Amino acid sequence: MATDTQRGTDGTAPTEPVQIESADHLDELVADQDVVLVDFYADWCGPCQMMEPGIETLAEESDATVAKVDVDALQQLASAYGVRGVPTTVLFAGGEQVDQHVGMLSEEQLFNLVSQYTDE
Question: Is 17 assigned a catalytic role?
Answer without folding.
Answer: no
